[in-house]
Amino acid sequence: MPPHTLSALRTTLGNIDAATRRTVRMPRTPARPAWPDRDYLGWRDPSAPQRGYLFTEHAGPLRGIMLTTTRARAGAGRAVMCELCRIPRRFEQVSLFVAPTGLAERRMSTLGTYLCVDLDCNARVNALRPLTPLDPPAEALVAGRRAELAERAARFIDEVLAVR
Ligand SMILES: [Zn+2]
């Protein structure tokens, strides 16, 4: 993804109203990984920790959604999988996130999915390395997983925004 300013990102949040958009904050620390290594952008709001944001530019214009999470997580002691990166993780590293939908129709409904708690799957996907001699070389492995990550993130965001 190319870099965007916070105000540009705020205006694309399609599932919240203008008043809520003005309250969106970004972490002070610079985004890691760098913009070109991102297939979607995600972060947790530093002043409203239950909130998170996802943005994509995959196969279309920049668009984004707000999500909220609760302390409810998958069963303790179990390995779970984030729906975006599909990398198995410990239960406390994955959480249920819920996005409000139907803002335009003034309907209150939500769409939920299990995601990495830091909303930063890219950092882990970029670090993937072959585990067996049968796996593709690291470069091809990462490229393939990044394409899947971009596709899944865009699909979820578009589902919430109901643009497809
Ligand atoms: Zn993930």
Mind sketching the topology for me?
Blueprint: H1 6-11, H2 18-21, E1 41-44, E2 51-56, E3 63-73, E4 79-81, E5 88-90, E6 94-101, E7 109-116, H3 121-126, H4 138-161
Antiparallel strand pairs: 1-2, 2-3, 3-6, 4-5, 6-7
Bound molecules: zinc ion.
Zinc ion binds next to strand 7.
Describe this structure in words.
The chain is of the alpha+beta class. It has one domain. Helices cover 24% and strands 26% of the residues. The protein contains four helices and seven strands, in the order H-H-E-E-E-E-E-E-E-H-H. It has a five-stranded antiparallel β-sheet. A two-stranded antiparallel sheet has the order 4-5. The longest helix is centred in the last third of the chain and has 24 residues. It is globular, with a radius of gyration of 16 Å. It starts with 5 loop residues before the first helix and ends with a helix. The site of zinc ion has 6 residues, from strand 7.
